[in-house]
Amino acid sequence: MLFNSLEFAVFLPIVVAMYFLVAPSWRIRVLLVASCIFYMAFIPEYIAILFVTIIIDYVAGIYLEKTEGARRKSILLVSIVSTCSVLVVFKYFNFFSESLAAALSFLGVPASPLVAKIILPIGLSFHTFQSLSYVIEVYRGHQKAIHSFEHYATYVMFFPQLVAGPIERPQNLLPQFVEGHKFAYEDVTAGLKRMAWGFFKKLVIADRLAIYVNDVYADPHSFNGLQLTLATLFFAYQIYCDFSGYSDIAIGSARILGFRLMENFHTPYFSRSVSEFWRRWHISLSSWFKDYFYVPLGGSRVAAGRQVFNLIATFALSGLWHGANWTFVLWGLLNGVYLVAGKFSRPWRDRLSAAVGIAENSLFRRATMLSCTFALTCVAWVLFRAESLHDAVYIYSHLLVGWDFNQIATPHFLLRQLPVAFLSIAVLEMCQMFGNRVDVPTFALRFPQPARWAFYTAGVLMVILFGVYQKTQFIYFQF
Amino acid sequence: MKAKLLTRLLSAKPRLPEAGSPAGALLKLGGFFLLLILVCVATDHAIDGGLRRIRTSRFGGWNRVMQGEVNAQLVISGSSRAASHYDPRILRQRTGLTAFNIGRNGTQTDLQFAVLKAYLAHNRKPEVVIHNLDAFSFVTSREVYDSVLYVPYLNDDGLYRDLSRMQPELWRSRYIPLYGYVVADMSFSWLRGLGAWLGIMPREDFVDGFDPRAKAWTDEFRHFHAANPDGVRWEIEKKGIALLEEMAALCRQRGIKFVLVYSPEYIEMQKMTRNREEIFRRFREIASREQCLFLDFSSWRNSGDTRYFTNSQHLNAEGASRFSNDLALALNERLLHAGNRPGEAQLVRTTVAPAVLGRGAAK
After folding, report:
1. Which of A192, A268, A386, B74 satisfies CB 3.0 to 4.6 Å to A391 for a cystine?
2. Residue B213 has what pLDDT?
3. Mean pLDDT throughout A86-107?
4. Are A283 and A266 in contact (CB under 8 A)?
5. Average model confidence (pLDDT) for chain A?
6. Contact yes or no for B36 and A457 at CB 8 A
7. Predicted confidence (pLDDT) at residue A207 exceeds the cutoff of 60
8. CB A28 within 8 A of CB A149
């Protein structure tokens, strides 16, 4: 079920009403059933795959708690391998098979890839990682094993964050299932406001920009340098608004029910370095890789060469997590290279700035760093969005050539959409800048209720009027 | 007793629940959503009213139709080819009949028929209805193209019934405020509606429903040809045939002369249509069965001249002007001044030989 659908507009109030009307002991069942219905609205059969993952890690958690010594490691390994094998079969089988066949062909061994006709279950990478996070935390002794199957199943399947995160940690989410939530006006209104902001990002910005980006990236050879540049710039905002919009709606929906999910984004395009960008972008995934992959590899407390390897390996894996395509792997690698270059060039850059008399906190240096980070991110997004490496190379080589200001529109994106696209991005950035300086909920309380209601009503009306309603799926659902 | 009760009721202070309590919270939330719904309904109403008020652009022509202000003697129905090929000013000048074009961009016969029925329901009966044919006339619609045009009039039961048959989910546009303007339309027509509500009218680009295209020949046909090197086949749906027959029958029942016209099509495109012979055989059969005139302009004198077309299907303004002149001559010759005055029951049942008509019209 898509958040941006009429079905969800009916589904959520019913779930909220039922959740608060039933006895507290039944609430977990309401959430579990609602989550099943939510997931089955996509492809019903795939719920079985989800339950396989749930059962594996539920059982592993109990065994890990009961077992001591070296066997614990074996149980953890079995659990990780079994859970990941589901991911590998459904997400990476064709990719590995095609890559192997290509490698063999390159070596002169004729081979045709074995291709399985499998549709990737929605959000598989997300709930796999959430499930893994649980067994690892139980193994590390940071989390007690859950003996109630319905609690554990609801932890993995909790509908607001089931298909695209935030990837929750058991320590944050699991205790909330046993807390008694009360129907609280503050929670409901805070949740609704957060959802409205998410819908603005998704419907007004992301889905409008998607029309342009889809046209251009589907056939980059048919567009001039200006269109390619604009599409890349638009994609940076499309993916941000699509994914952070989803997170806002997820966090808002959960808040209405009384749950607090972790924040997933913190104005990432205001970052002044790529490493800062990754601390602000998809926070739940970045911290997952940091805690369960980068740090166990040794993190940054090792020799310089090993640090480089750790960073590159973490980002390559992160790229592969995003999609079974070499473009994603290269995107991850490129980000890893950015981080390595940023880390080791820092002293040199500082010396250069000092030599030319630019203070570290001067507006010029901050603006330059911000612009450079955004440009580097956009360059990387080309790899993320391009249909193939060939397309990505074409886009890179044509971004700055043949700009034609008379040809900006695309077949499906008429010129009249352009002012709305730019204006909505400007509104987004202004609101984010304001939100970074002021605590908006407290600020809003300074105004009388009629003024607040008028403002909220006008805001919702603007989202309704300027929204694009093409039932565009959230980009991260495919991961 | 009654007075006491009344006094107690009036003096009693309303006890609204606190926002902190669940009942109070629900009441406040209900109040907010009620306000939001009221604002949406009011906005929807303003857009509806504004769009109906427009007297220019494609909205203006349709408003005149739905508000019974056209009452023409000669009505042209059909697709975008009809809208852009028939200049009512020339037809009026040459035939002496007041004319209006109700051709609709992006439509098929089912939607064209719905538009014609709406015209007949709201205007005085015309003397002649010209229905423009396309090679794809027997293919029916899967959706109501440019549905925003019809949204302000979805409370018209006849129109709604016809349109919802094509697109059953049209009920959403009728009953959910703003749905038809924001979900089903991406061209910001709601802004036009609000603008018109405030008195700001869109630019006039139509003339009595006619959509003159001041454009030169484009690359579209070259791309189309490259994409379809083996030509194209248009489906012949039974439903499409039945619709055309129904349209002719309706006009016959009402005593309106019904004329089928195949307006000019770029000659190279004609060669690409692999089942053209069969399609035209069906047109001739329908004309014969329904006893109506069929004017085929396939061999129009300028059919091979790209100076008069914007693409393979559409004439430009200059081409439309030439074609309208030729059509008026043919109508005078075959229908109006051939012993068949407008309004008389007798009909000419000949299919006009295209080459003859082309030369005749060139006089």
Report:
1. A386
2. 92
3. 84
4. yes
5. 89
6. yes
7. yes
8. no
Which tokens hold the place of B167?
Answer: 């697109």
> Which pLDDT score is estimated for B286?
93
Q: What is the DSSP pairing of strand B128-133 with strand B99-101?
A: unpaired
Using pLDDT thresholds of 50, 70 and 90, give the confidence band for residue A253: very high
**Nearest-neighbour CA in chain A from B261: distance (Å):** 32
Q: Do the beta carbons of residue A166 and residue A250 sit within 8 Å?
A: yes
pLDDT given at position B18: 54
Considering only CB atoms, which chain B residues are within 8 Å of A204? Answer: none
Residues of A in contact with B223 (CB under 8 A): none
State the virtual CA torsion across B69, B73, B74, B80 in degrees, nearest 10.
10
DSSP H or E run through A420: helix A417-437
Which residues have a Cβ under 8 Å from the Cβ of A386 and sit 6 or more positions away?
A217, A220, A327, A392, A395
The two three-digit tokens of residue A43, written as one number: 């492809």
- Concatenated DSSP letters for B101-139? E---TT--HHHHHHHHHHHHHHSPPPSEEEEEE-TTTTS
Beta bridge partner(s), residue B96: none
pLDDT tens-digit map of A324-360: 888 899 999 999 999 999 988 888 888 888 888 888 7
Give pLDDT tens digits for B133-159.
999 999 988 789 999 999 999 999 999
What tokens appear for A425 in the block? 């991005």
CB-based burial, B213-243: b 16+ in 10 Å, e otherwise: beeebeeebeeeeeeeeeebebebbeebbeb
Output DSSP code: residue B179. I
* C-beta atoms of B40 and A464 within 8 A: yes
Which residue in B159, B200, B172, B157 sits closest to B44, CA to CA?
Answer: B172
**Residue A21 neighbours by CB under 8 Å, 6+ apart:** none
The verdict on A184 touching B (C-beta cutoff 8 Å) is: yes
DSSP alpha helices (H): ranges in A67-184? 71-87, 93-106, 124-140, 149-157, 170-178
Q: Where are the alpha helices (DSSP H) in A257-302?
A: 274-280, 283-289, 295-297
Q: Which residues of A touch B28 (CB under 8 A)?
A: 185
Sequence-ordered list of residues with C-beta below 8 angstroms from that of A297, at least 6 positions apart, any chain = A309, A310, A313, A314
> Is B125 in CB contact (< 8 Å) with chain A?
no
CB contact (8 A) between residue B178 and residue A464: yes
Q: What single-letter amino acid sits at A448? A: P
Q: Which helix (H) or strand (E) holds B217?
A: none
Computed over every residue of chain B, the mean pLDDT equals 86
φ/ψ of B295, rounded to 5, equals -105, 115
**Rounded to whole angstroms, how far apart are CA atoms B231 and B137?**
18
Angle at A470 between CA A465 and CA A474, to 5 degrees: 105
pLDDT score, position A442: 82
- CA atoms within 13 Å, Cβ hemisphere of B188: 16
Closest among A249, A218, A250, A207 to A411, alpha carbons compared: A218
Tell how far CA A21 is from the center of its chain: 33
| pLDDT score at A477 | 58
Pairs of residues, one from chain A and one from chain B, whose beta carbons lie less than 8 Å apart: 43
Largest CA distance in chain A: 76
Q: Where are the alpha helices (DSSP H) in chain B?
A: 2-11, 22-53, 57-66, 80-85, 88-95, 109-122, 157-166, 171-175, 189-197, 220-227, 238-253, 267-272, 276-289, 317-331, 354-361
Q: Is A190 exposed, middle or buried (0-12, 13-18, 19+ CB in 10 A)?
A: middle
Lowest mean pLDDT among A256-265, A293-302, B40-49: A293-302
DSSP state of A92: I
Letter for the amino acid at B117? K
The mean pLDDT value for A178-187 works out to 85
Bridge partners (DSSP) listed for residue B77: B131
